[in-house]
Amino acid sequence: MSNTTPRRLDDQLCFAFYSASKKFNHFYQDALKPFHLTYPQYITLLALWETSPMTVRELGSHLNLDSGTLTPLLKRLEKQGWISRKRSDQDERQVNVAVTPYALEKRDEVYARVNNCIDLMSFDGVDYQTLLAQIHQVMGELDTISTQDLIQEA
Amino acid sequence: MSNTTPRRLDDQLCFAFYSASKKFNHFYQDALKPFHLTYPQYITLLALWETSPMTVRELGSHLNLDSGTLTPLLKRLEKQGWISRKRSDQDERQVNVAVTPYALEKRDEVYARVNNCIDLMSFDGVDYQTLLAQIHQVMGELDTISTQDLIQEA
DNA sequence: AGCAATTTAGTTGCACACGATTAATCCAAT
DNA sequence: ATTGGATTAATCGTGTGCAACTAAATTGCT
């Protein structure tokens, strides 16, 4: 109850992630412009190029997105011909999402475009693995904080 | 044109920022629940607690947000009594955004709540300054890539 | 078998985020 | 003094992101 100084550093850490995420999003938006894909749509396709078909739930647990986000996103991808959605015969609650032949045909082109754009960057002073590990550690820490902990002092 | 392998590592870096940003957002959403503030609203107030008044443009350049995002956000903050919006007399194009007495009164309480929630985390294995520096370096690299570079090979 | 609890995807409502456009205002150069 | 260009905030349209809820289907328990 005594600490009334803004945590500049911690705020900066969150703000850094917030800003970096937006910048990356913008970067991919430009890189993927030839395909009319957004970053969330791109990572959805990435997951499906690796494993297809997947149910909406499986996709969601890979991408950390719920059906409220995925359903409209998948409808847009379907409309543009990248994926198909079909209710499972075995369990009619599930919807199987699969890449289309068009998506398979375009896959290498998308990979090449993204790789070429990434090549424009030079991560010289960046220790890639350490950075990734630290981010994961921060995320792990965020996961350990339960909503309960936060609520109890509200 | 030859590299058709997905850049798992780079995708992972972007995805790590993307995921961490969402987790942080959720963390602050919970922490700020007693005040009915979102994270973007909170950083807007942080900026204004430091400098008030500011024009929408000045706020936007601090937070990297444009008027399309800020105008509705500021209207919500105004409606809830945190800020005031008044068109400048000197230059009627500008709108001066200022914290209200209510916001000043609540400031320390918000700081304390955020600090208490951050205290729940332990950034043990994390070298805070190095992490921040690396994130800034990545952001700097993203800034150097101009849209032109990305467009030319589209 | 029958029914309650669970699971799944979809829907709704709200809040960003941003590109593109618009309207009002200011400024600068004639 | 006018006017053309620049600046500023607001607006519009699209696309997430998520909490809360709904409807349908499945599972589990007796």
From TrEMBL, chains A, B:
Entry keyword Iron: no
Molecular function in Gene Ontology: DNA binding; DNA-binding transcription factor activity
Keyword Cytoplasm: yes
Recorded superkingdom: Bacteria
GO cellular component: cytoplasm
GO biological processes: response to stress
SMART domains: HTH_MARR
Keywords: Cytoplasm, DNA-binding, Transcription, Transcription regulation
Domain HTH marR-type: 10-140
Main localization of the protein described in the UniProt heading: cytoplasm
Localization per Swiss-Prot or TrEMBL: Cytoplasm
Protein name listed in UniProt: MarR family transcriptional regulator
Lineage per the UniProt record: Bacteria, Bacillati, Bacillota, Bacilli, Lactobacillales
